[in-house]
Write a structure and sequence with these properties.
Radius of gyration of chain A: 25 Å
CATH superfamily of chain A: MetI-like
Strand order of the largest sheet of chain B: 6-7-8-3-9-10
Strand content of chain A: under 5%
CATH superfamily of the largest domain in chain B: P-loop containing nucleotide triphosphate hydrolases
Distance between the termini of chain B: 56 Å
Largest interface: A-B, 25 and 37 residues
Structural class of chain A: mainly alpha
Number of strands of chain B: 22
Shape of chain B: elongated
Shape of chain A: flat
Number of helices of chain A: 12
Strand content of chain B: 25-35%
CATH topology of chain A: MetI-like fold
Number of strands of chain A: 2
Number of domains of chain A: 1
CATH class of chain A: Mainly Alpha
Helix content of chain A: 55-70%
Oligomer: heterodimer
CATH topology of the largest domain in chain B: Rossmann fold
CATH architecture of the largest domain in chain B: 3-Layer(aba) Sandwich
CATH class of the largest domain in chain B: Alpha Beta
Chain lengths: 295, 388
């Protein structure tokens, strides 16, 4: 058979290219453009090369924000993933109870970020907030505006309350997809409850958990509105995360160049972490020959 | 190592069953003796899997008892019954290696590791899995996975029984044959009770010493493959076993003769008396005969009745002839090389091969079985040839 060579088919790629250009490349290139220039006013600019990148990486304030950001994301992942799995395991499998619990679990996900921040802001007030007031009545001098420990604990608690549902729902759907025969086989094999979880449920949840962890990591790494409304980044800068630092730089101080460089670094960090995580998980699933007992 | 007794067993998936149809298992009394190789044969939906799940403890029966020797185990979960079950579709523990999969049921009960290794290698060897032992189970093909599932059942040497629920569904035909032989070998080696559920009569008869045929929630016959072929206890067994199934003719009495569709049939006197007696009630009476035993002739003769030819299916070394007697279509098996009549034929039912069925159940009458001919015996549908 003669293969017809007609390269004009490449033109068909154009619409897709145009779309991607407008959705991703053009906005990103604008940022790249700013990141290598010093913009003094709309008519005066100088090319500065990688200067802003070097500055950003060496900025102690941003380094501290980055460290806080990682600490925050890892903490909420360490809480939300096991908790979400636990909740999913406890949720009823069928009947009206299942529907009811599904709705209740989904509710926090439907609340806008700002509203969550406001709810918790009021909730934690020492005078009229249920939690703040109760804790004080119990003798603990709870105050998120003066104690960075209280502020941190509250932000983490808020995020866990808001987002554990996502992990729980993903795991629930993953659990529902496990055929009954697996549980029957496990009973026949006299597996313990732990073994059923470890060797049947957890492996079958791997895929949804990868998605869940990636989503939660990206989300939490970009968190902005909730801590901003709740603590405003304080006390001091103890709860100022990367997004808020960026927002101050770009809008309050109008440092276009440094904030563009910062944005790109921010974006690359998220990309890198997700890629490393995904690759690591996928590698775990590969067949590693030569392990296990001798044949 | 026990006898498994089912006593007055019944099961319904409904909360308040009222009629027979509501039951998946209807009143069943049966004993599976220690060390037997049994098949549980029946069409889809007849309650085979339900019965298996009741024996293994995955399901609690609504009525009756399951006894392991003399111990009532109704309420015992599978973990405490010490029984193995292999399911229709492969179940493997994805993240474990094949070795760990096979070792899993033993590790759960704390068997010493050295013993586990020995046992796993023995089973892996029998199932030809040795070269895969280090692989992760998730990367196996469907039939390899099913071998692993079966291996997990076989690895436990002390079980009360190993139950197989159509385990070879996903296996391709060549390997199927090999695995059935393997199971049989393993059965002989370890003398453990095996109950094999299938809807394939060939599979049942190559594996089992005795077959239980299930129909509408009941075991309608329990016997050797030969008994099922020669003396089906129920019309369903007649239909289901054999290829094609048994012919059944609904009969009546007219002018002191047994007739079917207006044609008189020659039967033994004792049979005729039994038919007369059965017909005096409201029973339906049928005569059954295997296609292998129907005699076909091109010429009329003593005891032959006239039928019209319907079709002929050539199956190589023999043909299956369909003939029409009134409204009834009968099958007859004729050996290859015979010239067959084109329009009309004459058939005869040798009385010694006729079975009497009253309300679908076989009635044994002295004299009806004065001669025993197996499916491979000398009288294998050849009579017609000699007499034609």
């Amino acid at each position: 058979m003669n293969k017809v060579r007609n390269n004009s088919a490449w033109w068909l790629v154009l619409p897709m290219l145009a779309l991607v250009t407008f959705s991703a490349i053009v906005p990103l290139m604008t940022v790249v453009n700013y990141s290598v220039q010093d913009v003094l006013d709309p008519h005066t600019r100088y090319f500065v090369g990688v200067e802003w990148f070097v500055d950003t990486l060496n900025n102690p304030g941003l380094q501290a924000a980055l460290a806080r950001q990682f600490a925050f994301s890892l903490t909420i992942l360490a809480i939300e993933v096991p908790l979400g799995i636990g909740v999913a395991l406890l949720m009823p499998k069928r009947g009206w109870q299942a529907s009811l619990v599904l709705i209740l679990v989904t509710l926090p996900l439907l609340i806008p970020w700002n509203v969550v921040g406001s709810i918790w802001q009021i909730f934690t007030r020492g005078d009229i907030g249920l939690m703040g007031w109760s804790l004080r009545q119990l003798g603990y001098p709870y105050n998120i505006t003066s104690s960075s420990i209280d502020a941190w604990a509250t932000i983490i608690l808020m995020d866990v309350w808001h987002w554990t549902s996502l992990i729980a729902l993903l795991c629930y759907s993953g659990l529902q997809a496990i055929p009954e025969a697996y549980y029957q086989a496990a009973r026949i094999d006299r597996a313990s409850r732990w073994a059923v979880f470890r060797y049947i449920q957890l492996p079958k949840l791997t895929n949804v958990l990868v998605i869940g962890v990636l989503l939660r990591f990206m989300h939490s790494f970009m968190i902005y509105a909730e801590p901003f409304v709740l603590t405003g980044g304080g006390p001091g800068s103890s709860t100022t995360f990367l997004s808020q630092s960026l927002a101050i730089m770009a809008t309050a101080q109008f440092d276009v160049g440094p904030s563009a460089a910062f944005s790109l670094i921010y974006f690359l960090i998220i990309l890198l972490v997700c890629w490393v995580f995904y690759t690591a998980i996928m590698n775990l699933q590969k067949d590693r020959r030569g392990e296990g007992p001798d044949a | 190592m026990v006898d498994i007794t089912l006593s007055g067993l019944a099961h319904s998936y409904q909360s308040s069953p009222s009629k027979d149809e509501d039951y998946a298992i209807r009143h069943m009394d049966h004993v599976w003796e220690q060390g037997g190789a049994y098949a549980l044969l029946g069409p889809s939906g007849c309650g085979k899997s339900t019965l298996l799940n009741i024996m293994s403890g995955l399901l609690a029966p609504s009525q009756g008892d399951v006894l392991f020797d003399d111990k009532r185990v109704n309420q015992l979960p599978p973990q405490e019954r010490n029984i193995a079950q292999v399911f229709q579709f492969p179940v493997v523990y994805d993240t474990m290696t094949v070795f760990d999969n096979l070792a899993f049921p033993l590790r759960n009960t704390g068997v010493p590791e050295a013993q586990i290794r020995e046992r796993v290698h023995e089973v892996a060897d029998a199932l030809e899995l040795t070269s895969h032992l280090k692989r992760k189970a998730r990367n196996l093909t469907a039939d390899e996975k099913q071998k692993v599932s079966m291996g997990r059942g076989l690895v436990r040497s002390d079980v009360a029984a190993i139950l197989f629920d159509e385990p070879l569904t996903v296996i391709d035909p060549q390997l199927k044959f090999k695995l059935r032989r393997k199971l049989k070998e393993i059965h002989q080696r370890f003398a453990v009770t095996m109950i094999y559920v299938t809807h394939d009569q060939l599979e049942a008869s190559t594996f089992a010493d005795k077959i239980a045929v299930m129909y509408e929630g009941q075991i309608v016959q329990f016997g050797t493959p030969r008994e099922l072929f020669e003396r089906p206890a129920h019309t369903f067994v007649g239909y289901f076993i054999g290829s094609p199934g048994m012919n059944f003719l609904e009969v009546d009495m007219a002018d002191g003769q047994v007739v079917c569709q207006g044609s008189p049939l020659a039967v033994d006197e004792s049979v005729q008396m039994a038919i007369e007696k059965a017909l005096s009630g409201t029973a339906t009476v049928k005569l059954g005969i295997r296609p292998e035993f129907v005699q076909v002739s091109a010429e009329p003769g003593e005891g032959f009745i006239e039928v019209s030819m319907d079709q002929c299916q050539d199956l190589g070394t023999f043909s299956i002839l369909s003939v029409r007697l009134g409204q009834v279509v009968l099958k007859a098996r004729v050996e290859e090389g015979r010239t067959l009549p084109a329009q009309r034929a004459y058939i005869r039912f040798p009385p010694e091969h006729l079975g009497l069925y009253v309300d679908e159940y076989r009635v044994e009458i002295g004299g009806i079985h004065n001669k025993e001919n197996g499916p491979h015996g000398e009288g294998n549908g050849l009579h017609g040839e000699e007499e034609a």
